[in-house]
Amino acid sequence: MSTKTIIALQGIKKIFYTQELETLALNDIHLQINQGEFVAISGPSGCGKSTLLSLLGLLDTGTEGSYHLAGTDVSELNHNERAVIRNRDIGFVFQAFNLISDLTVYENVELPLTYGRGLSKAQRREKVEHALAQVDMAHRINHLPSQLSGGQQQRIAIARALVGEPKILLADEPTGNLDSKNANIVLELLDKLHTEGATICMVTHDPRSAEHASRQVVLFDGKVIDDISRDTTLAGVPVTEASSA
Question: How far from each other are the two terminal CA atoms of the chain, in whole angstroms?
Answer without folding.
Answer: 33
